[in-house]
Amino acid sequence: MFTQINYNGSVSAQYDTLTKQLDALLLGENDRIANLSNASALLNQFLTNINWVGFYIMQDGELVLGPFQGLPACVRIPVGRGVCGTAVARKETLVIEDVHAFPGHIACDAASQSEIVIPLIIDNTVIGVLDIDSPLKNRFTPEDKIGLEQFVQKLLSHIA
Prior knowledge:
There is one protein chain. The protein is an alpha+beta fold. It is built from 4 helices and 6 strands. It has a 6-stranded antiparallel beta sheet with strand order 3-2-1-6-5-4, sandwiched between helices. Strand 1 (52-59) and strand 2 (62-70) form a beta hairpin. Helix 1 (11-26) runs antiparallel to helix 2 and helix 1 (11-26) packs parallel to helix 4. The chain is globular, with a radius of gyration of 15 Å. The protein starts with 10 loop residues before the first helix and ends with a helix.
């Protein structure tokens, strides 16, 4: 059973707690969609000042919308296009302070001002991305990047 908790301490300590909570939440479940769904719900409950959090999954050479929390979103994103597609092409996390200044940004929600995208990589192959949008510019800090990459690594251990 899931119980909402209060996250205390430094940002790093809060992400450590979040990642442990994810591990406990997904323990024993191997369905990828169920685990991505719960991961997006957990992040939505934990993060402040966001307006969208979810996953895009690689299918037939493009990203396709997966489990998410937020308003309806773009369904398909080509590799190399927008923040998500660029993160896939580069195989690296992208932290975008102002999405309107990012060349080729795909505006699924006009309220979004900043974004972080973390590729989901298994055996050097990108299987999808975690995408988080905020209505605030410069929302995502270096601590968020580290904490969310840690979260993704734990998630991958449950969906690989």
